[in-house]
Design a protein that fits this description.
269 residues, alpha+beta, six-stranded antiparallel β-sheet, three-stranded antiparallel β-sheet, elongated, DNA-binding, MerR family transcriptional regulator, Lambda_DNA-bd_dom_sf, DNA-bd_dom_put_sf, RmlC_Cupin_sf
Amino acid sequence: MNSNRPVRYKVAEAARLAGVSASTLRLWESQGLVVPSRSEAGHRQYSAEDVARLKRISWFRAERGLNPAAIREALETEDAPGDGGELAVLSGIGRKLRSLRHAAGKTLEQVSADMGMTSSTLSTLERTSQGVSFKTLHDLADYYGTTVSRLSGEERDDVPALIRSGEWRAWPETTPGVTVQLLAEGKTMMDCHRFVLAPGAASEGAYRHDGEEFIHLLSGRLELVLDSDQFFDLSPGDSLYFESRRYHSWRNRHDGETILLWINTPPTF
């Protein structure tokens, strides 16, 4: 038995430690106050940090009488990083989205209403950099007047001109099954990415932006749709060039991984 394995609590155990019912834990999850991990069988699993968060939620509710929205804001204030602890609390893209929301003076409820998403989904994204479709991530970046590439940190100054094969830095995996690896970084005139798509991975909606894009399929099979009525079925070796202003959506139609090069210019994605 591995004694170094982190402790994971089941729903009933976590509820008992927090002094609430299991149904209350499920309610708090639906409200975006806590997001437990899942076992391979799909069962909720709470870490020691999750249990500590549950106890704080319970205290805010019982002792201060706060509603879910106020509890979220109170927890965010407590989570505010200091003295180099930022990356331990928030992750990559989610951290930057939260900073942009605060700079705009907006609450989770205001942004989620504007974007047509639930506040719990937005809260999960800001805390974990996960849980939204590729389209939603693009739309959020556009909402804040930035790009997904900037959110990923591609415009760093301390980047090498040469990136060796297999040494690509990757975005946080915001969308399940979609891995985006950076083939070039810095303040460039092109976004140069290597997409690795799991079977069935998709944009889950169409999006558009300024610029032009080039796709070259390395392996697998990709379906790309332009303006909802022009369909392209790409096989290995195929290339496609189109204006980014056209609505585009995509899906891996292969029963294995699909890998492609994807270039945008100027860097507007």
